[in-house]
């Protein structure tokens, strides 16, 4: 279901940005679009504007929360040490490939 929402969101985003590009052409009379396409385009542009506004608000709130969390930490502890990665197991090299050398 998430993938379907992402596809729908991409289509609306693409329509909105496309309509923003076509809007100057449609307003001058060079390109005449039916009213239904104007409504769909305007709705897509509104969706794009709201989505950009929400992204900006979310980014602004994350910065505010991160800055307040950084100021509130009184103790300056070093970062925790990470365990070293386990070495990969060794594998015996192949002496054949596929079914070579097998009786028919």
Attribute tags:
mainly alpha; 62% helix; 104 residues
What does this structure look like?
The structure is a single chain. The protein has helices at residues 2-28, 35-72. By secondary structure, the protein is an all-alpha fold. It has a domain at 2-68. It is flat, with a radius of gyration of 28 Å.
Q: Quick recap of the structure?
A:
62% of the residues lie in helices and 0% in strands. It is mostly helical.
Radius of gyration: 28 Å
- Helical/strand content category: mainly alpha
- On the 0 to 100 scale, the average pLDDT is 82
Hey, roughly how much beta strand do the residues contain? under 5%
Helix content: 55-70%
Put simply, the count of helices is 2
> Between the first and last Cα atoms, what is the distance in angstroms?
50 Å
Q: Work out the number of β strands.
A: 0
**Helix-strand pattern:** HH
Which geometry do the CA atoms define?
flat
Low-confidence stretches: none
Query: Major sheet, described briefly?
Result: none
Task: Please render the helix and strand layout as text.
Blueprint: H1 2-28, H2 35-72
């Amino acid at each position: 279901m998430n993938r379907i929402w992402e596809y729908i969101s991409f289509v609306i985003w693409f329509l909105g940005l496309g309509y923003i590009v076509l809007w100057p052409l449609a307003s001058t009379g060079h390109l005449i679009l039916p009213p239904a396409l104007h409504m769909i385009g305007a709705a897509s542009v509104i969706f794009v504007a709201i989505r950009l506004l929400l992204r900006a608000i979310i980014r602004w709130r994350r910065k505010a929360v991160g800055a307040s969390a950084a100021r509130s930490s009184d103790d300056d502890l070093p970062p925790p040490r990470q365990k070293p990665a386990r070495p990969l197991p060794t594998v015996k090299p192949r002496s054949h490939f596929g079914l070579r050398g097998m009786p028919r």
